[in-house]
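Re-run with default settings, no changes from the original entry. Doing this only to confirm the output is reproducible before filing.
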Amino acid sequence: MQKVFKTLMVGVILLLTGCNFTEKEAFEFSERPFSESDRTDDPSLPEDIPQPNSATSYWDQLGIDLDRFTDQAHLQYIGLNDQSMEKFFAQELEGAEITIAMVDAGFDVDHDELENRISKESQSVGGQEPDFDYDRHKARGSFHGTHTTCLAAAGGSEEVIGVHPRAEVLLINPMGGGASIYDMVENGIKLAAEKGADVINLSMGCANILDVNEGPNPCRQELTPTREQQFVDTLREITSQGVVIIMAAGNSGKEINPANFLPFPIYLAKEVEGVISVTGVESSTGLLPDNQQTGNKYFNYSDAYVELASPGVDSVQNQMGIKSCWSDTADYARKLGSSMAAPIAAGAAALVIRYLEQNSIDIPVGDLAAEVEQVITQGSKSNSSLQRLVKESRDLNLPSILEFMETRY
């Protein structure tokens, strides 16, 4: 998608890391009495036809009622409200909307919340439809990709709404796209960038390259230094095109460190500007939650390797995951995980890009991804409970990001 302020095709944000717990678009014209001040200077217009109130924001015209989504507590936690969305959606974009790529699996392309939202460029790395493995995921009862996609961009037509409810979603299924998890992730993000993503969400990876057999999602194969550098080079190539990449931190509940625990690909995010690593917090407390069964945290953490916190669960105590789309026996489900935290951040990244575009803020394409990362991480509020768990204790917050941009630009 050609952006107004770009000279290149750009795009991307990543997807898939693990979960443990079980879109009526309308123009809303002013209803106040018509007055002479509403007229334009065009004498050809009939005098008895009132014109739209030009002061009405595009958000108001969309007619989305956020009060319908009070059971999505993460929205309130990040400050997604009419006041913030009126600024992100002050006007309609001249071109197409922002595209969020979901590199994931377990997609229900027929879900009502994604109607008319899925890019025609969506596909698997192997060339099949993005839901080519639907039956396998149905048998497993896992629709991870559907859940994460709606968190980023559900339109709010039924029960849930995404952080960017008008984004186009590009579904990229990497399963079978390589001999290893490293190949599948790399080929997935490369295809997402090629197909025009602006943001890529990556909620997938493996537990620990230092112990390839560790955890429920083991890496299985050694990651050689040469292969590691190849992946870093791919990240740099994609972000140089103006594509932002979001990575989920993982759910092992451990501190990421070079001595004994490096989950892939999250530990490489700090190497590349424009790649943001995200862990989860509990939206009811603002804390990185504890797993009472294991004695560890639920999500991975590190003030060196994790750059942002975002809601990954509503309430651990009440076993309330983040509500989003599902499929098969239930159209919606609550799940927890850094997989949920990442697409919420991806939606925020898409909103930042939208803000830059609608306000004609010209960022060189090669600097765009890094700029978005700085806006999100430096613009988000600091949460003292995240000290030594997240770099600079940054906790995703849309109003503070807006304040940061209004000052910066």
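Residues 386 and 393 are 5 Å apart (CA to CA). Confidence is low (pLDDT under 50) at residues 1-54.
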